[in-house]
Specification:
Layout lengths: L16 H29 L12 H16 L2 H11 L10 H20 L14 H26 L6 H24 L17 H22 L7 H20 L10 H8 L4 H9 L9 H22 L3 H5 L3 H27 L9 H27 L9 H33 L3 H11 L1
The structure holds protoporphyrin IX containing FE (2 copies).
Length: about 450
């Protein structure tokens, strides 16, 4: 029997309103951000269309596109994760999940209007300025208060979590409290300028540092989602030891030498290749809902592709050629639309359980993953050409136009997949919950 139940077999929602609501909000922003992606892909092909848009030209839409992909699509599934981990989606506090999500979405709406009106700090992914710079951190704080209240009420009730789990939750809460303040402070254009002449570029240490944060998140996620298989605890222990060793390596690396031509820099970054076999082994050490299978495979494949190509990209000769080209756009897409997005869908399917079918239509799975693969290949090709000829992507030519035309078609395929998930998620949030259906049946009986 297929592990992916069809929509027709579903008659009631089994997931909590908080988790289903978070999936709906994140997909709403994915659809909006992707539609804007299609718009900017058109504008790159026909720049004269900018004249029709008044002040809302390419430069304003592109930051809206990036911010909505990050703070909308990529962030809200993590709200669902936190609801589950801290128990905010159960008991009396559950009724506050949806209002908290609406407050978040309103902040993104306010941010969008402010960026389109030309207000921006000028820092990528930290464009919050004016009233949006205050409103968005307050929104994160509201969500934080909700999960903090859930933790305290779980404490008072019969929550029988062990000491380690409780301490991890408290530590997580303390770290999360820093986030809104960091966003507010780092968005200031006076803290460090948008283009910082004091930094000489990436080092093996800085790349390794940010990648290890991603690895740490990958290793922590399963503990909030499911149970581990007792017989595989050695694999889990090995993975944590490797992470600790790499962190020590990262601290030991000098930060003053900025050249990626130094063997110590690229060899240390190469230590990430250990995660190619380790990550799948680690995830196989936990029990997963059958419906997660294809997205679990997808995110593990994207992760391997990201680590491998990211490392090759850093090598002497390659980075010198790829720097400031479309090759880096390809890398960003591989990282965010490939790896991060498939990881988020995997997390959502696990959290939704039986309701995870909304992401499991076969055509949309291939439209998304095939589309991202084609997009990345196109941008790597354009970037490589651009490395020889910097005018390649600026001056329209037949090959550049063909690449950008196909990117537009691929973008439409990604947009179509996201619309499909959003339509199903809308149906899902409107379904009665299984509890209410069961009790209604009991009453009738
Ligand atoms: C419908 C699908 C999409 C289309 C058509 C699209 C289109 C675009 C375009 C035209 C750019 C500007 C590239 C340039 O600077 O020349 C861009 C940048 C970007 N997009 Fe998208 N995009 C799509 C989906 C996504 C998704 C799903 C994500 C993340 C989850 C994403 C994240 C980004 C990021 C981070 C950048 C900045 C890249 C960089 O400058 O390195 N996009 N996108
Ligand atoms: C979730 C994971 C990751 C995300 C979201 C991400 C995102 C990004 C972004 C947005 C850029 C800037 C692109 C631009 O300037 O247009 C970048 C640059 C880069 N990334 Fe990643 N990346 C990730 C993982 C990795 C990994 C695992 C590696 C290496 C193994 C890597 C290696 C690089 C390199 C070498 C650059 C070029 C730096 C430069 O010269 O400016 N990335 N990444």
């Amino acid at each position: 029997m297929s592990p992916y139940p069809s929509a027709k077999t579903i008659y009631a929602r089994t997931s909590s309103p908080g988790v289903a609501g978070a999936a709906w909000h994140s997909l709403l922003w994915l659809v909006i951000a992707n539609a804007i992606g299609v718009l900017i892909a058109v504008l790159l092909l026909s720049p004269s269309l900018n004249k029709e848009l008044g002040e809302w030209t390419y430069g304003r839409w592109v930051i809206v596109h990036m911010n909505l992909e990050l703070y909308g699509w990529s962030s809200l599934p993590m709200a669902a994760f936190l609801f589950k981990v801290y128990g905010a989606d159960r008991g009396p506090l559950a009724q506050w999940c949806r209002p908290a999500l609406w407050v978040w979405s309103t902040a993104l709406g306010v941010g969008t209007l402010s960026w389109l009106s030309g207000q921006s700090s000028g820092k990528l992914f930290l464009d919050w300025s004016g009233y949006a710079r205050i409103y968005f951190p307050l929104t994160i704080l509201a969500l934080w208060l909700l999960i903090a209240a859930a933790l305290v009420s779980g404490w008072n009730s019969s929550d029988n979590a062990g000491l380690a789990a409780r301490s991890a939750k408290v530590l997580g809460l303390v770290l999360l409290l820093v986030v809104p303040f960091l966003i507010y402070i780092a968005s200031s254009p006076t803290l460090y300028p948008a283009i910082n002449p004091d930094t000489g570029g990436p080092t093996g240490a800085s790349q390794l540092e940010s990648s290890l944060i991603v690895v740490a998140i990958l290793l922590m996620l399963p503990f909030g989602l499911t149970r581990r298989k007792a017989e595989r605890s050695r694999t889990i222990a090995i993975a944590w030891v490797v992470l600790a060793a790499e962190m020590v390596l990262c601290l030991a690396l000098g930060r003053t030498d900025i050249s990626h031509h130094r063997p110590a820099q690229y060899l240390s970054l190469g230590s990430l290749l250990l995660w190619l076999p380790l990550t799948p082994a680690y995830y196989a050490a936990f029990e997963w809902h059958a419906a997660t299978r294809r997205w679990r495979i997808a995110f593990l494949c994207w992760w391997s592709a990201l680590v491998l190509t990211g490392w090759v990209m850093f090598l002497p000769g390659v980075l010198d050629h790829f720097k400031f080209t479309d090759g880096l756009v390809g890398h960003s897409l591989l990282a965010m639309a490939g790896f991060v997005s498939s990881l988020l869908i995997f997390v959502l399917v696990e959290l939704l359980g039986e309701d995870g079918w909304i992401f499991n239509q076969t055509w949309s799975f291939y439209a998304w993953n095939g589309g991202v693969a084609a997009y990345v290949a196109l941008m790597f090709t354009a970037g490589w050409r651009e490395g020889f000829d910097p005018a390649f992507t600026m001056a329209p030519g037949s090959m550049r136009n063909a690449i950008y035309d196909i990117r537009l078609l691929v973008g439409i395929s990604l947009l179509a997949a996201s619309v499909d998930w959003f339509v199903w998620a809308t149906k899902l949030v409107r379904e009665p919950s299984l509890d209410s259906v069961t009790s209604a049946q009991e009453v009738t009986a």
